[in-house]
Amino acid sequence: MKYFSSSIFQGIIIGWVTSVLIFILLVFVGMWGKITGLDVMWDLRVGLFLTAVTVTTKVISFIACFMMPAILTGMLVLNKIPTLNGSGAMISQLIEASITLSPLCTLKACFNSGKTRKLAIVIGSVLVWQYTVSLADLYLHITAVGRSQQLPGLMIPSARSLDIAKNCSFSYITTCFRNKRGLSNPGKALKIYRNTSDTFQIWNNDDGVYLLQAPPLNTSYAYSGSGILLKPFCEPVSTLCNLKARYGAMTNYSCPESLWYASGNTQTVLSDVNVTSDVFEPIDNLYIALNPIHAIVTIRYNTERIEYDSEFVGEVHGGHSILLHCQILTSITENVVTLGSLKSLPLGNLTTSQQFALGVASSEGELLRRTVDDVEDVAHSTGNSTLFANAFAQQWAQATIAGFSSGAVQANGEGDGEGDGEGYGYVLEVIKEQTFAPLSAVLIYAIVITFPLFIFSCVCVFSLQNDTIWILVEFICTPQRLLYQALFKEHHMDDACSKSLSDQAMRIKEVECDVKLEEGHLKLTTKIQ
Predict the structure, then answer these.
(1) Which helix (H) or strand (E) holds 17?
(2) Checking CA distances to 408, which of 41, 64, 189, 415 falls within 20 to 30 Å?
(3) Where are the alpha helices (DSSP H) in 409-468?
(4) Among 180, 213, 70, 131, which Cα is nearest to 449's?
(5) Which domain of life does the UniProt lineage start with (predicted)?
(6) How many angstroms separate the first and last alpha carbons of the chain?
């Protein structure tokens, strides 16, 4: 019980236990984290991480104070200091520094001469360690950041694909269109064109316009399915087709053989799409459509007071016309959308009848007029026919796929496991809070709390070699008022504890004391100067 009640023995035990626990904690935290470049990442909210760091720092600071008697005992044994002698003020400052770990008291004690200086330096080392741990803690707090990471969760099997009608050939009644120039479902087509459909999604990428099934209702990390890809391209051909304003309401054009001898008058309609890639087979009494779809597009706008390039041709009665040669390359794709990023692989081509129906959709009047209106600002703001052709190509492809999908395509239901989309599905999204801290800050903090603690714990072990030194150290670590009482009890009628500290501080400067051990007992000799 004698040893267990001693603060020195308690400091030895708590020092070694803490050293082992800190080492285990660092190993566990290191294994839990992942090094990404120059950062360390943990799947933990940054607030909890920094709270754990703060608690660790506070515990280490408290343990440093608790270990102080054991550390001083070890240093007395290592330096073979059995006695303390000097002025009462010197010893008082040493005692005060050991108890309070005050920077000012420690600094004063470090500059004093005598055998107390080495002990004051040890106390100062512990104090510097505490401040260094706090600075490393602060550095980690400043540099650590929290991020929300989107990660894949549970896989939900689902038939997520587009079911394209098989019979899309030209006839009066068909699964795709009522006739060659009419939408079977204009309301649905407009929703798809505006990208507000609940079942379809239009995706504009650099490589073309995609039609996909709408994403799952649940927030998903990734989803997959089949789709249709249109790769549009348009170029101005007014000069090539000899488009000129002649007389009256005549602004004629006549294209060469390379453009299928397409001809006409731009003033007959505001906009028109003349599909030139359809071939009629009289023997089989059906139309064959080519891939890509080719068309000559006629567009007219009122004139703005800007300078148009030569491909915009002025008409006799005002306005400007332009001819575009456009084509759309079509294919079926397999798509995977991951966190808003689309990855696509080719699956094949549309059938001949489906290709024909797509060409019909490209020339549908209502959607074409909307397309022409949507890109009109490009024509009037730039007057550049190439920029206008590029803008029109994207909008025209979007209108084409909207018209085609309104009658020829439907989205498979989720979870039925039927149709072309069997095996597709989506992955639920899981939001994980993560903490990122610079590797340098983590290493500095780990080194600062580990190595000094281990060194001080080793110093504590030396205190077990001479238990008589414990009495001297426990005197040093005794509350300061008891020291004043020991020094002044022979010189004052009143109890020194009742005197003010300022009065005692002035009186203690006149005392020379010698503290030593004799036969295992502490002997204090004082002399008034």
Answers:
(1) helix 7-32
(2) 415
(3) 439-462
(4) 131
(5) Eukaryota
(6) 42
Whether residue 250 lies inside any domain: the answer is yes
Q: Kindly report the CA angle at 454 between 452 and 455, in degrees rounded to 5?
A: 65
User: Per-residue confidence at 468, pLDDT binned at 50, 70, 90?
Assistant: low
The whole domain housing 457 covers 7-148+433-528
Question: DSSP assignment, residue 43?
Answer: S
Query: 3-state DSSP call for residue 82?
Result: coil
Q: Which amino acid is residue 111, in one-letter code?
A: F
For the chain, what is the mean pLDDT? 79
pLDDT of residue 471: 65
Using DSSP's 3-state secondary structure scheme, residue 34 falls into: strand
Q: Any idea which residue has 């209106």 for tokens?
A: 373
Q: Are residues 143 and 196 in the same domain?
A: no
Name which of 252, 259, 384 is nearest 311 in CA terms.
384
In a domain, 226, yes or no: yes
Tokens of 252: 């004629």
Residue 511: name the closest of 488, 527, 494 by CA. 527
DSSP letters along 317-347, please?
Answer: TS-EEEEEEEEEEEEEEEEEEETTEEEEEEE
**Considering 423, 456, 477, which residue would you say is the last residue of a domain?**
423
- pLDDT bin (cut points 50, 70, 90) of residue 43 is confident
State how many domains the chain has: 2
**pLDDT digit string (tens) for 247-259?**
878 899 999 998 9
**One domain for residues 246 and 287:** yes
Bridging pattern class, strands 200-205 and 208-213: antiparallel
The rounded distance, in Å, linking the Cα atoms of 391 and 88 is 92
Mind listing the pLDDT tens digit for each residue in 407-455?
Answer: 788 877 544 333 344 456 777 777 778 888 898 888 899 899 888 888 8
Q: Which of 482, 521, 477, 478 is nearest to 75 (CA)?
A: 477
